[in-house]
Amino acid sequence: MSDSKNIAGYNIVTLMKRLEAATSRLEDLTVFQVEALKQAGKSEGESVNDEDRAVEAPAKAETKAVEETAPPREESKMVAAYDTFVKEYVTPFVTASSSIDVLVQEQAQCLAKACDLQREVLEISEVAQEPALTSADDPFMRWFTPIQDQASKINEIRENNRASKYINHLATVAEGVPALGWIVNKAPVPYITDFKDSAQFYANKVLKEYKGKDDKQVEWVQLFLKLLNGLSDYVKEYHKAGIAWNKSGKPLADLEPRDAAKSEAPAAGGAAPPPPPPPPPPPPASVFQVDEPAQKSTGGGGMDAVFAEINKGGGVTSGLRKVDKSEMTHKNPALREPKAAPEPTDKRPTPPKKPASLSKKKNPPRKELQDTKWIVEHFDNEKEIIVIEAEMNQGVFIDRCSNCTVQVKGKVNAVTINECYKTAVVVDTLVSGVEVIKSNRLEFQVMGTLPTLSIDQSNDCQIYLSEESKNLDIYTAQTSGLNVSVPKNKEGDYSEHPLPEQLRHYFNDNGDLVTEVVEHKD
Questions:
Q1: pTM, full prediction
Q2: pLDDT at residue 321, as a whole number
Q3: Which of 103, 118, 218, 514 lies 20 to 30 A from 153 at CA?
Q4: Residue 72: burial class (beta carbons within 10 Å; 0-12, 13-18, 19+)
């Protein structure tokens, strides 16, 4: 112990001697500089100032030499290209928006601010490690949340001004600005394209309204679409698989956004920063929590009672009953003998009866004439042909029939077939037409003339036309498996024509909706 104290004392004495020697040399240097200044004819006050400058001169000279020898930090090619994108596309769009409307200009300024914040993300990606993005508390959210805030402001301007004359302008920007979220996407180019297509819908409305009337509005639309295309081109060249972070860089938790210091320290005479957000709400009640009134009413229990019993330690077994020797299986071999299994019984539990209110009531079949309309309904598996002798001023309504055949003789006004299954209907001649609704596997044949045929929400229907009914009009909606057969020759052969089920919808250059039939040809 004494040796260690001697060594410590020796080290302190040596350190003090070295400090005194260094201080002495600095004093000698100062005195030498003061004497030199006095000899130059300067006053005492000036010599003191020059004395300070003389002491600082070596340090400043050394710092300047280091700065001159260190190479200047060059801006990366990626960030420079982004600046070019902002200059060529974002700035002209903001300028054009200022001449449209105040709300449109406000949206454009928010967009420019978001692009400026995105540039900072690109800068830190060169010196920081890739964020995990596994929770809302990730340090990267300090950079990404301000961008989200600008996008939210753009959408709020749209939602709060739906009565504006320029609502389509506001919707165009609001639908396109989420494309800035490409910075957190591993497939950013398709991501930008999706939101560009969403913005294109409202952009076409603006073009349709102002094309040929106001070139300023048309130019505004073109500038915004060019902005999204320019962003897509930039990302495709530099960030095709997402932002490339620096694997050997600093953790994002050690970095701060450039505006953080400004927001934390208010300027002189300025207002203090806003107070921190309130604490999060308390966690939900534990699933083990027991309602005290309920516990009192039931005489205790729940998980608290279980833990209380466990905490008794050795006394937890005090309430157990002692087993008598006559009940111990190791002392009574008879207790270890297997018991005979109960004899199986044929009785099975009867299924519960279905309530009468839920049982489907089967209506009786009916065929009758009411005023000028024939009603044919609820025929099921009818083997005989249901024949109706109708007149020209009468109509026929066939409702909810299955596995049957209905023949309508004579010239009638109209025929309606509703919710029929595997039903065949044959008619002679109609004045108005036939309407088929919600029917499946239906077969319909006309022997004479038929002006119109309407089929709605039906599947797997076969239509047979006569030579006189080839010029009819067929209207379909929500149908599938619909085939129409027409006479091919006098020998009675038919040629079958499936009706198309797929349609194509698109907007033309004028913004009009165009619908075309998609044909599948062999």
A1: 0.40
A2: 72
A3: 218
A4: exposed
